[in-house]
Give the backbone structure.
Amino acid sequence: MPLVTALITTFNRSAFLKKAIESVLAQTFRDFELIILDNSSTDDTEEVIKGFGDKRIRHIRHEPMNISQARNLGVREARGEYIAFLDDDDEWLPHKIEVQVNFFERAAEDIALVYGAFIKIDSEGNELGVRRPTLRGKVLKGLIYQDDFTGSASNPMIRRSVVMELGGYDEKVVSGEDWELYLRIADKYRVDFTLDPVVRIRSHEGPRLGDKLLDTARLEIDTMARYRDIFEEDKRLKSFYLQKIGGKFVRVGKAETGRGYIAQAIKANPSNYVAWAQFLLSFLGQELYLRFHKNYLSYKKRGCNSHEK
């Protein structure tokens, strides 16, 4: 039985998929299987996979399903003690599995997830910067603050037994499904990291799964309910979440609902000046609000990139 199961989820991205598969087969650690979960692709995905002719590859073409369902299918099919997902547009660095397996072999049994630094790349594969990990140990509150701590599902390696114990991915969650699982892991176990970069994560200009704003808002609302005690103890965190939720509703044209959440954010933390700005901007109409939001994100992105390079 292989020690590690690598799992690629894919749909109609054969050009990117080829590089993703190559990055798995190029691993310095060899005791792994590769399961490719194909969400009924209609391009030449099957031909690309057959072209490798590697016995460690299992191609599972399944009926259309959401990403949480596909990930659960992969977990059920996996034979490895450790599992690691790879999105079809990302690429592992050659030592990724080796570094994380070695870390697990030295770690305490309550370490359930190991991740590493990651390199951001653009759609053409050009490097944009490196982001270093910071959260380790009992990190539940840290994960609630920082929902992109791994950068992508392509980064962590997880004990399969832990995922099974927790019931796998929540199949009702269709945006932020990885983060939701990581929260449940962190609520019971510890996580750790290696400073080695382990993956190249691709950035796209076009729409992605995470752009399903209302799905994301609902997950944030559910998170506030599930971890109510943490939010009640930290009014700044509570305000931050209510502000985020409200902003998403305004961005999809539900300004009145959005203002309700933003007003709650201001009440929880009157010094949340971003929430005040959002509240006022919400009266200017969806188009202007979206323009200000885009400019704000560009400003934040420039600041992040200057720190990561």
